[in-house]
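User: Fold this; tokens only.

Assistant: Input:
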Amino acid sequence: MSSENAGVLVLAGTPIGDVADAPPRLSTELVAADVIAAEDTRRLRRLTQALGVHTTGRVVSYFEGNESARTPELVEALLGGARVLLVTDAGMPSVSDPGYRLVAAAVERDIKVTAVPGPSAVLTALALSGLPVDRFCFEGFLPRKAGERRARLVEVAGERRTLVYFEAPHRLDDTLAAMAEVFGAERPAAVCRELTKTYEEVKRGPLKELAAWAAEGVRGEITVVVQGAPESGPAELDPAELVSRVRAREEAGESRKEAIAAVAAAAGLPKREVFDAVVAAKKTT
């Protein structure tokens, strides 16, 4: 089919908590859509009921488990002239949510893609954190396994931009403890919980204090904001810590050469210095 008569893919931001935050245009697009691709069709139904909207378009599920398989079907609908609306459970599609594959496929076929801007947990947490927001980077969810999580944190230990993460409440204490170990116990951070909801809470402080607080148990949707590394660069690391970081990356699947190069870059050190520390440690074991 030609893309000349193709429809439009609309990415719609949905409320992250308070339904009153829904942009007015969201209701308009829900009514106008020929096809609504929803991460959770039950949540979509609750959203339309809360907005007082009656939809007539075909509703299909579009979530992580069927994203690859359903994308071609939605592209065919778009090529046939359909207006396809993509919504996720909360926030903007494709930002740590389903959507990227469909957007990429639509762009490849020269299909128009537009968006209904809406609430964002990333930007809301940044604004509330009290940390620098002129430059930031979004890191999504960290790996669940301790070794892989530590390796990922080591990669950005020297990052000067403010860092934003999503995290599950039952893993928050371990994540904050790992951050305190890798970034430094005194690195300022903020844990934003249940944003825009009834029990919204923003807890600010050094990573070590936040880790101790989280160890008591935390519930709800969590966004963590961490201040970037100081301009002076990462704190000087002793050989044992360099070796520990290399081993963590090796356990996560990297070769020793790759691990040494990454640790050296994050610590602002020559690769030879990290290599020598690893060799020395091997001789003593």
